[in-house]
What does this fold into?
Amino acid sequence: MPELNEERRLIQQSAREFTRAVVRPTADRLDPVKGDIPRELIEQMADLGYFGILIPEEYGGLGLGAFEYCLVAEELARGWMSVASLIARGNALIGSLKAMTEDQKQIYLPRMAKGEFLGAFSLSEPDAGSDIANISCRARRVGDEWEITGNKYWCTFADGADFIMVFARTDANVDPKARHRGISAFMIEKPRGQLPQGVSGSPIPKIGYFGWTTWELAFDKCRVPAANLIGEEGRGFYLATAGLETARAHTAARSIGLAQAGLDDAVAYAQQRRQFGQSIASFQAIRFKIASMATDIEAARSLMYSVCEKIDQGVRCDKEASMVKLFASEMSEKVTSDALQILGGGGYTTLNQVERHWRDARLTKIFEGTSEIQMRIISDHILGRD
It folds into this structure.
């Protein structure tokens, strides 16, 4: 496993202390009532530089790599996965960096690094989830603007963000053999707390991932300046997939953080809970379960570190990124479920936070590509399929 140098240990420790002092207490208070992540917490994250971890120093960011990004995400997820996800709202454009013009970089990235320009990502549609080449939302050029019409699904933070990155089809002549072509990416700037003009939406009821709202959006001739096209027209599919290795490592980090939180809670409970005259931590069934949980977490963490090293070295690792996303997310659901089992009846109440870890861990098997999609990617690589 790659070693953590002193700088990385300090980054990890700082994120751990921030989570313990701020994130976890906030989550314990707000998740049960489905409250929103407070703006003051977001501002504290901005002060720590978390929204600019991946943004180059010349644009006001920290200029760090996927390794540091995932270290921070894992620690934040130990408190609240929604907060660990929030850091992507500032580092979101890093996959698009090569496609952006220099003017766009100068305008957007410094504000993003400061937490002043956070985004939402609108890619999925009712009929385009894993099959993102099936996007039907349309963008039509009208003078110096684009006019977007269509429906989007699963857009988290659409209201609280300062912009929405929207993917729409700009070429109506779809070649059945190349459906991924003709999709373009647009940045829609908007007032914080509102949806853009020409866009209406309905919150999607979720069983977890609280702290912010996930939306179904309807675009009705929403106008976007032509200058807000990101990258080349018709090349949006490549833009959407350019950062998947880092995104999947980030999901693995969040999964590991959730699992670690579940283990931490289970260990604390097992040591204080007494039955038959002794703590349940003395029972072999509990001890062995904890040992298995800890081993699975460490295995996932080691794989994540390895994948992050490859990403930061510029080595293609889409297979390995899918492996860590698959392994960590599946592990996280199992470990948090085992943690809930150790707490017994108490684990099945909202009086203990392990149920939050469990609910949120279940989502990690779905977003950023389902477990089934990851297995397809991995097996395609191994079997030499295109």
In short: The mean pLDDT is 95. The beta strands are 119-122, 138-142, 145-156, 163-169, 183-189, 199-203, 214-225, 229-230, 274-275, 278-279. The two ends are 31 Å apart (CA to CA). The first helix runs from residue 6 to 30.
